[in-house]
Design goal:
heterodimer; A: 257 residues; alpha/beta; 8 helices; B: 356 residues; alpha+beta; six-stranded mixed beta barrel; elongated; Lipoprotein-release_system (chain B); membrane (chain B); transmembrane helix (chain B)
Chain lengths: 257, 356
């Protein structure tokens, strides 16, 4: 199954890797009224447009930032682009495949093979070592144990954690845990890396270092990262500003060498 | 621990396992076992009656039985022992699990209706009694005061009284030292025969007596074993029920608490099937480990119960422990894990797939 993973080398850089067309995500606040609630005249719960008619294209190799204040829809848009959630309206395509037509199981497989996710709060499994955490997605892909260990060790060495390989998350600093999370996101060689506030739990200096390492180890992968921190967004080729779930403006930054 | 008690109870009271076919016992409402029911209504003129029963057609062997719990002192220690007085006759073989052939035949101290025959002063000890008294053949022991007896033999094959330490003596000599010689008393008769027609005659030997067959004895014993078996089965059912509810509740709460972790696994691309395998494996391994720890704790509890029991109410352990209990405990725990699995997998299925 490892062979099914789309390598960035296979992607045509001229075509968009992710395309969103009029994507809308509406959440309901509270539960639907039941039969008795309807009889008693209870009204439908109010709705929130977390993402409102967003259209965008992300090309291969791009680093795109999603900016905006808290509640602006950054995280929800990341979830929609990665297939973690389904839009209420509109379509999200990944390399031409409409994710909205896939079943939950197919979308899970799609994430395993094509998407790497870095969370704000690391979300490492406490009972596993750094190497086992990094290698976890390879278990699902059926990669042999020796190969898993080899690839996870190499990646951890590249990210400067060669002396932390057997440590558990509780024995690592916040910066080290986020490095492990980045390595876990990259272990399957994904075409797209999603990062939601990757430096949100780190101090400024550590965050800056982690970002540089992230960009370096991700090589020329497509990265979409959400942050409200301007310094974090400086690594992006392009920043999309969100306000109340809609795109407020696009600004393109100078691409750094 | 409860299983150990049940097995202990089921295996210890086996005092009926003698090679006899009938027991004549006084009619009584007491639930006590005929053999260890000391200080109950007794039969009188038992030597004469025994001769009469022996004369019945089909009777191979017969003896009155007088049972008393008496203090026996050896050179090293003193202990209360079940002392049983019998008349050794050919083909009697064993009484209360001790070989009666090791006594001088025909109770020589009782001669011609008088207690003035040859005093043998011999006692045959069961293995357990010999261990407790720390004595060996040829040594003297004092029974119920200053009555000196000599250990004629130790029956290493003794087993039918379970773990009850037993001493076999001549009937008349036991009567003499316990005051039962006045009316030539005994508690019961054991009659060895293969002839069912003897039963009617035996029932007429004493008024207000009852004759119990081996089958009835066995039924009695089985009833007691059933009680113990029921105790062990109840322990099994209770442990399965309580264990399953406990594991379902605690693991269920754990799964709900781990909802975030399951969501992360889902976001990383781990299928629901893999997540359920993870939950299932975790549940079975944890319950297995719990079973191992619980069983070790149970064995420690059995040891504690036996220690307390021996120091307070008994002379022998009341609960049994065996290495196979560890396997049994782990097995029960694994069954608990398997019984809990469906609910836990449904819970995991319901909470998985969210967004971290």
């Amino acid at each position: 199954m490892a062979g099914a993973v789309t390598s960035i080398k296979d992607i045509d850089s001229s075509s968009p890797i992710v395309t969103a067309r009029n994507v809308t995500k509406i959440y309901k606040r509270g539960s639907e009224p039941g039969l008795i609630g309807r009889i008693l005249g209870r009204s439908e719960p109010p709705t929130v447009h977390a993402v409102d008619s967003v259209s965008l294209e992300i090309s291969s190799g791009e680093i795109v930032g999603l900016a905006g204040s808290s509640g602006s829809g950054k995280s929800t848009l990341l979830h929609l682009l990665s297939g973690l959630e389904q839009p209420t309206a509109g379509t999200v395509s990944f390399q031409g495949t409409d994710l909205t037509t896939l079943s939950a199981r197919e979308r899970t497989r799609h994430r395993l093979e094509n998407i790497g996710i870095v969370f704000q709060r690391f979300h490492l499994l406490d009972s596993l070592s750094a190497r086992a955490n990094v290698a976890l997605p390879l278990v699902e892909l059926g990669v042999p144990k020796s190969e898993r260990r080899k690839r996870a060790t190499e990646l951890l060495e590249r990210i400067g954690l060669e002396d932390r390989i057997t440590h558990r998350p509780g024995e690592l600093s916040g910066g080290e845990q986020q490095r492990v999370a980045i390595a876990r996101a990259l272990i399957t060689d994904p075409a797209l890396v999603i990062a939601d506030e990757p430096t949100g739990e780190l101090d400024t200096e550590t965050g800056r270092t982690i970002l540089e390492e992230f960009k370096q180890v991700a090589e020329n992968r497509t990265i979409v990262l959400a942050s409200h921190d301007q310094e974090t967004l400086e690594i992006c080729d392009r920043v999309i500003q969100l306000r109340d779930g809609a795109i407020a403006n696009r600004r393109t930054q100078e691409i750094r060498p | 621990m409860v299983t150990g008690l049940g097995v202990g109870l089921a295996t210890s009271t086996t005092v009926y396992d003698d090679d006899v076919d009938y027991w004549i016992v006084p009619e009584t409402d007491s639930p006590e076992s005929p053999l260890i029911a000391t200080d109950n209504i007794q039969f009188s003129s038992v030597h004469e009656t025994n001769d009469r029963i022996h004369g019945y057609d089909g009777v191979d062997a017969t003896t009155p039985v007088l049972a008393q719990v008496l203090r026996i002192e050896s050179s090293d220690t003193a202990e209360y022992i079940l002392v049983v007085g019998v008349i050794n006759t050919p083909e009697l073989d064993r009484v209360v699990g001790v070989d009666s052939d090791l006594l001088t035949p025909q109770d020589p101290y009782y001669a011609n209706g008088e207690y003035n025959g040859e005093w043998t002063g011999e006692v045959v000890l069961s293995d357990g009694a010999a261990d407790i008294l720390a004595t060996s053949p040829g040594e003297s022991v004092a029974v119920a005061g200053n009555n000196t007896f000599t250990v004629a033999a130790i029956d290493n094959q003794s087993s039918s009284t379970g773990d009850i330490p037993t001493a076999l003596v001549q009937l008349s000599e036991l009567q003499q030292i316990t005051g039962a010689a006045e009316y030539d008393q005994a508690d019961q008769f054991v009659v060895s025969t293969n002839s069912p027609s003897v039963q009617n005659k035996l029932e007429g030997v004493y008024p207000q007596s009852s004759v119990q067959t081996r089958g009835e004895m066995t039924a009695n014993q089985v009833a007691e074993s059933d009680l113990s078996l029921a105790l062990a089965l109840t322990a099994l059912v209770v442990s399965l029920s309580i264990g399953t509810l406990f594991v379902v509740t605690t693991s269920g709460l754990e799964i709900v608490a781990d909802q975030q972790q399951l969501a992360v696994l889902s976001a990383m691309g781990l299928s629901i099937k893999s997540q359920l395998q993870l939950v299932g494996t975790q549940t079975v391994v944890l319950t297995g480990l719990g079973g191992l720890i619980g069983t070790i704790g149970g064995l420690a509890g059995i040891r504690l119960i036996n220690t307390i029991a021996i120091r307070t109410i008994t002379t022998e352990p009341i609960a049994t422990s065996h290495p196979v209990f560890i396997v049994y405990g782990i097995g029960v725990a694994l069954v608990v894990g398997l019984l809990s699995l469906p609910v836990l997998l449904l819970t995991a299925r319901r909470v998985s797939g969210g967004v971290p």
